[in-house]
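Long-time lurker. I teach an intro course on protein structure, and each term I like to show students one example going from raw sequence to a predicted 3D structure in token notation. This year I'd like something fresh instead of my usual example. Would anyone be willing to generate the tokens for the chain below so I can use it in lecture? Attribution to the forum is fine with me.
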Amino acid sequence: MPGTSSDFVWAALFDMDGVLIDNTDFHINAWLQFAQKHDRPLTKEQYVENINGHVSADAMAYVFQRPISPGELIVLTEEKEAIYRELYRPHLAPAPGLLEFLNALKAQHVRLAVGTSAPESNVRFTLDGLPLRSYFDAIVDASMIQRGKPDPEIYLAAARRVGVEPDKCVVFEDAFAGIEAGIRAGMKVVALATTHTREELADTGVSLIVDDFTELTVEAVQNILMIK
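-- Reply from a regular --
Happy to contribute to a lecture. Here you go:
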């Protein structure tokens, strides 16, 4: 049939935190605990505006208000992520509708990739813990890029790894920085209202806003790519 995924090669690129899993509150609490431990006051609002969606190097520099050396970054990042994993481990679960949506995409031979600002330890924790890794043709994490979101590098790298041009990619994001990265990469973006409200996401330039994956079909997402 003309217009179906079988004769149109495209890719779905997913952020991880707040998208594949609805874990934003756990990351917020982990950052607040971590910052308090280091006597660096941090609010939820500061997290949402300056940390969510950013790679650890940028997030740590914001919390400590100074450049962080590579060696120090490794130690601090794992300290914070250990707090997060301890908090979230009992609640680890795929986002509502995710597995059904991924299976539908795979059935239509859509290329799938993850583009996440998370460190590799959290990628293992999430993708192997659920498990989700087998669904994806490529995974790009923070260790594989030079410039974090909102720079488009991570999604451009994911598109290259699945062999699909940027204008044939749809990004699934929850964070402002990630949405900007997808748009700057020349891709369409679907926003999940897990971190921000629909109202907050309305003026970001995304093609579609949903609460979770139960509201999506493969055809509806593919049709986004047809809109010029």
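Some talking points for your students: The beta strands are 11-14, 111-115, 138-140, 169-173, 188-192, 208-210. The mean pLDDT is 94.
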